[in-house]
């Protein structure tokens, strides 16, 4: 076990992604120039929403709890990827729109309100292949 702090034992080593996530907030606040403070605060709020309990964290919890399971279905994988990968990709677009001066309406348009099944069919096929392949 990894000793994170005196008296605290963690079964998993801290991931570098956690460091990067904390750095993202620092970088946004300390390095963003030429952007009104209200937009910077909006970006921080949107990033917090995207990584919160209904975003990245939800997907990460399900992902970690799924490690070692042999029977993980497509719906399970979709949940993980919608809450991790898709949430962060959406956040990148939305944060750029906010920082770039997009209107409230333009920013909302950049947020995903669901996927077009025809457009994501190749992704679903890939996820299904990965889930069902014999390693």
Automatic annotation (TrEMBL):
InterPro entries: Isoprenoid_synthase_dom_sf (IPR008949). One of its GO terms (molecular function) is metal ion binding. SUPFAM superfamilies: Terpenoid synthases. The keyword DNA-binding does not apply. Residues 1-34 form the signal peptide. Keywords: Magnesium, Metal-binding, Signal. Its cofactor is Mg(2+). This is Uncharacterized protein.
């Amino acid at each position: 076990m990894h000793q994170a702090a005196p008296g605290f034992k963690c079964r998993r080593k801290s991931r570098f992604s956690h460091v990067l996530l904390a750095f993202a907030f620092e970088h946004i606040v300390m390095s963003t120039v030429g952007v009104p403070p209200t937009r910077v605060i909006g970006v921080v709020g949107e990033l917090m929403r995207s990584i919160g309990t209904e975003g990245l964290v939800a997907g990460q919890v399900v992902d970690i709890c799924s490690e070692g399971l042999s029977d993980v279905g497509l719906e399970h994988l979709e949940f993980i990827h919608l809450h991790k990968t898709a949430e962060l990709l959406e956040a990148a677009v939305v944060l750029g729109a906010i920082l770039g001066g997009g209107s409230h309406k333009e920013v909302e348009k950049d947020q995903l309100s669901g996927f077009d099944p025809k457009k994501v069919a190749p992704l679903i096929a890939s996820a299904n292949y990965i889930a069902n392949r014999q390693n």
